[in-house]
Amino acid sequence: MTDHPRAGIMNGLPKYVASQSLATAGWNPTTILSGDVPARLAEPKRQPGRELRIHGSRAA
Q1: What is the pLDDT of residue 39?
Q2: How many angstroms separate the CA atoms of 28 and 53, rounded?
Q3: In sequence order, what are the beta bridge partners of 17?
Q4: Which of its termini does the chain have fewer beta carbons within 10 Å around, N or C?
Q5: Are 52 and 38 a contacting pair, CB within 8 Å?
Q6: CA distances from 13 to 20, 21, 53 (A)
Q7: Nearest-angstrom CA–CA distance, 60 and 45
Q8: 8 DSSP 8-state letter
Q9: Residue 60: what pLDDT?
Q10: Long-range contacts (CB closer than 8 Å, 24 or more residues apart) made by 50-55
């Protein structure tokens, strides 16, 4: 994705990943949300700034 015109923007935005198995993520800045994900997600939702966008996939 580094050659896409918007790659720099995406790479700089904070990212949140809901996972019960990941401990680290290679795409910074990324925060892993585990345990009670809805409760953990409530904090970034309360922060001022841009909206949160949700993109999903499911690993097989």
Answers
A1: 94
A2: 17
A3: 32
A4: C
A5: no
A6: 22, 23, 11
A7: 29
A8: H
A9: 54
A10: 52/16
Kind of pairing, strands 30-33 and 15-18?
parallel
pLDDT at 2 over 80: no
pTM: 0.71
- Count of Cβ atoms closer than 10 Å to residue 18 Cβ: 15
Question: Using one digit for the tens of pLDDT, what is the confidence trace for 19-44?
Answer: 999 999 988 899 999 999 999 989 88
Tokens coding 8: 């720099």
Residue type, position 13, single letter: L
What are all long-range contacts of 12-15, with beta carbons under 8 Å and residues at least 24 apart? 14/44
Joined tokens for residue 48: 């001022």
